[in-house]
Design a protein that fits this description.
This protein is an all-alpha fold. It has one domain (8-102). It is 59% helix and 0% strand. It has 5 helices and no strands.
Amino acid sequence: MPNEFFTLESMLTLSGATGATLVIANGVQYAFGFGPKWLGLLIAQAITISGALAALPAGEAASFSHYFVAIVNGFLVFCAAAGGTHAVGARDHHVLTPRSLAQADTPQSGRRSFWTPWF
């Protein structure tokens, strides 16, 4: 267990990228009331693509396969982060149905909690 906050090395792991995505997306949604479903996906893609490029040896150009793997990993990170918010956010909502989720605390209602599920 590192004694530090996020580092580039820790964000190149699945758990690090998932944690960073979850914290950034939830922080933006909570602080600014901006919470579209795609926000977490955009953040996950930015983290995984940036991480893949940063991990390349000096002087090596990124190929199609580097980007493809980074994009697939971005979807994996997004799904893991969304699942985390759903699992923890489910405690705030007694019965989760599509209708109850649609009526859940949202940024528009001004009652969004930090752990409100993304969708």
